[in-house]
Amino acid sequence: MFYILMIAIFVVSLVIQGRLKSLVSKYSDITCASGITSNEAVMRMLNENEVSGIVIKHTDGDLTDNYNSREGTINLSNTTYGKNSIAAVAIAAHEAGHALQDAKEMAAYKVRQLIAPAVNLCSTLGIYVTIAGVGISYAVEKNVYGWGYRISTIGIVMYSIAVIFYAVTLWIERDASKRGWQAMQQFGWVSEDQLAAAKKLLWAAGDTYAIALASSALTLIRLLAMRDRRR
Hints:
Layout: H1 2-27, H2 38-48, E1 55-58, E2 66-68, E3 73-76, H3 86-103, H4 107-140, H5 147-186, H6 192-228
Parallel strand pairs: 1-3
Antiparallel strand pairs: 2-3
Helix pairs in contact: 1-6, 2-3, 3-5, 3-6, 4-5, 5-6
């Protein structure tokens, strides 16, 4: 059942990524009704919220847009930088949303920044530590709650950090999309009939993080089942 679910998640992930690329491609050819560019949209959001010191930069590639809190930059890709399409403005507004989260000291954003450096290590090492603990429990211990159980529990706690990270990230991404969409609506950057397209784009980006959360949560359940099987 675990492997069937993982395959299903993988397939859904491919579908979501394909849909996102399709939407970006489609709405990159349609100009915003207001004619505003992505760079101008970012500056408007920052200025309206009295956030200063953020620099807009161009970064190579497509869909490589990001907000860098350490450098204080919003990096816009080839698809986005200086463009006035619905897709460009929506993506830029989303990244500006992250800058606002940082500036307003959003609790969830601060939590993600705190645990981000440990995620890769904990997610990988947590699996191996759990498996090692289960192996010890079966091979050399008679007591179900011996050292093997304790070691595997440590591994599960380590991996849980990754699950928490993806859960918080999904929340943050949805919030950034919401901020971006509200700005597009409030400032009239798109017409009424373009709002639906903007919302599709902004929410499709967040769906990729929902899949990452589902995959990590399923792996955590698998690790718990491995540890508790002997009981």
